[in-house]
Amino acid sequence: MASADQLSRRSRGMMRRMRRLISRLSPDSLLARLILIFSASFFILLFLTSIYAGESRHFYFMRALMADRTRRMAETALLLDASSMETRFALREQLNGRGFVVHFSAIRPMVVVQNEDLREVSELMQFMLNRSLAHVYENQPRLGGRHGDHRQTEVPRLASLAVSHLNLPSPMEAFWKSVRQYFVSSPKRNGGPSVYQATAVIPLRDGTWVIIEDSSPGYPPMPAFPFTSILAIEAFFVVISLMAFALCVKPLRRLARAAEQFGRDVPGTPFLPETGPTEVREAAQAFNRMQKSIRDFLDERERMLAAVSHDLRTPLTRMRLRVEQLDESQRGPLQKDIGELQQIMDITIDIARSKSEGKSMVDVASLVESLVEDRQDMGQSIQLVPRLQDPEVLFSIPPLLARPLSMKRCLANLMDNALRYGGEVTVDVEERGCTLAVVISDNGPGIPEADLSKVFEPFYRVERSRNRSTGGSGLGLSIARSMARLHDGDVILENRPEGGLRATATFQRC
Questions:
Q1: What letter does residue 16 receive in the DSSP assignment?
Q2: Do the Cβ atoms of 61 and 174 come closer than 8 Å?
């Protein structure tokens, strides 16, 4: 039995920790919202940065491609310009190949850009070709003899160039292609190459025009979008932000737990440690000052009520003695009034002491049994349910960490209320997971549905007479609910289908 109980407690503890973790990471928690906001912002920043890097990469990729091809064209023109006519045809056969084709023309051919989308690229590549021509001709060594004059290094007339085909994907096209490859299929490192085709016309010094048709079907493709790197950086940032924000939110959770505990157990709540950053220390100091002020106020109120109770007991005792000397006809009403004063005074003191009462282990079985037996000794019709009349079953109920006097007052008020209005009363005790439930049922007339919530209001009585012997003081159920809520529980009233009222008092175990 002990091992099973320990396993049950461990499982409940694990469930509580899991619920706390889920609650901390739910969208309603401050920690989850901070992580979500910063992670989403960082992811957007990474995404936009990658798009910008893709734009820059596309630009430099295009520039490198153009510089490489135009430089080859310029060097070919320089080589042909320095050769005789017979040698040029032999060189042409050697230069032709792998997408690079050279022709000669005696008249200037027309080069027209057919695709308007490629006009800007054509103009840029034409500019780079002319700059490459200027560069290679200026760096050519001067030759001796009749070719050693200034005309040998003279830069030729401007060349013309038109790009007819360019299959370099734009940054967004490359991005969506990478998305499909990354999330739909495996990335293809050796996928379709980028295709480029252009026609250049370059004049030589002797009036010959060189026509170069250039294409690069084997040029390497654009690199894929760096999704893996972005996800790795984002995961790292999420982990770091989780650790950082957890440290920031931890003092708030500690303050919330302390406030919740202080609301349940005023004297048993320890002061918060006044450590950490300045803001955390200031919040802890303010909370500790509030605790001390409330405790001092409750202690002062308890001392004041105890003093008032002590001072009132002596006059009440003198009044009882004097009433005993009166005639029987006058004695009864006065004794009744004195009893009502004593009852109100006891109720007031119980309410005042309930908040400052400390917790201890309560033997639930002994408490319920003693309350039932006390009322049976007074001749009242109350008993335990048949299941609990077996001592082995009754005393198998685990003890409960609770405020003993508050719990006793709660159950006593419910039993007295049931006996006053319900006649025969039965008491049951149920274990409902982390909740202990004491169920008190009677066979009375019950309570109208409209009054089930109103009866917990102070001084509210369903029985409208002003006679306390029939209607009570109107504080019993209100006090019972207050005492139950001190234990994170409640009192629930419901009419039984077979007649009568069922009052269920719950107390939290964990």
A1: H
A2: no
Its sign, for the CA torsion 196, 197, 203, 208, is positive
Nearest to 210 by CA among 65, 99, 91, 114: 91
Query: Is 171 within 8 Å of 51 (Cβ atoms)?
Result: yes
Would you give the end-to-end CA distance of the chain in angstroms?
20
414: Cβ contacts below 8 Å, ≥ 6 apart:
438, 440, 476, 477, 480, 491, 503, 505
Dihedral over Cα of 128, 134, 139, 144: its sign: positive
3-state secondary structure of 15: helix
Q: Smallest Cα–Cα separation from 132: which of 165, 159, 106?
A: 159
| Count of residues in the chain | 510
CA-CA-CA-CA torsion sign (460, 494, 362, 382)? positive
Contact criterion met (CB below 8 Å) for 268 and 401: no
What pLDDT score does 370 carry?
93
The residues that bridge with 200 in the sheet, in sequence order, are 161, 212
Which of 324, 404, 329 lies closest to 364 in space, CA to CA? 404
Contacts of 357 (CB under 8 A, 6+ apart): 267, 403, 404, 405, 406
Q: 299 to each of 18, 266, 292, how far by Cα in Å?
A: 38, 11, 10
Rounded Cα distance between 496 and 458, Å, is 24
Task: Tell me the residue type at 287.
Answer: F
Q: Are 47 and 230 in contact (CB under 8 A)?
A: yes
At 227, is the secondary structure helix, strand, or coil? helix
In the three-class reduction of DSSP (H, G, I as helix; E, B as strand; rest coil), residue 429 is classed as strand
Residue type at position 315: P
Q: How far apart are CA 379 and CA 397, in angstroms?
A: 27
**φ, ψ for residue 214, nearest 5 deg:** -120, 135
d(CA 216, CA 219): 5
406 Cβ contact list (under 8 Å, min separation 6)? 354, 357, 483, 486, 487
Please give the average pLDDT of every successive group of 10 residues along the chain, which has 510 residues: 56 63 60 77 79 73 82 89 85 84 88 86 89 83 45 62 79 69 56 69 89 73 65 81 79 84 75 83 89 85 76 79 78 78 72 68 92 91 92 90 88 90 89 91 87 78 51 72 86 90 90
Dihedral over alpha carbons 315, 317, 323, 328 (to 10 degrees): 150
Residue 100, beta-bridge partner list: 97, 214
Give residues with Cβ within 8 angstroms of 84, minimum separation 6.
none
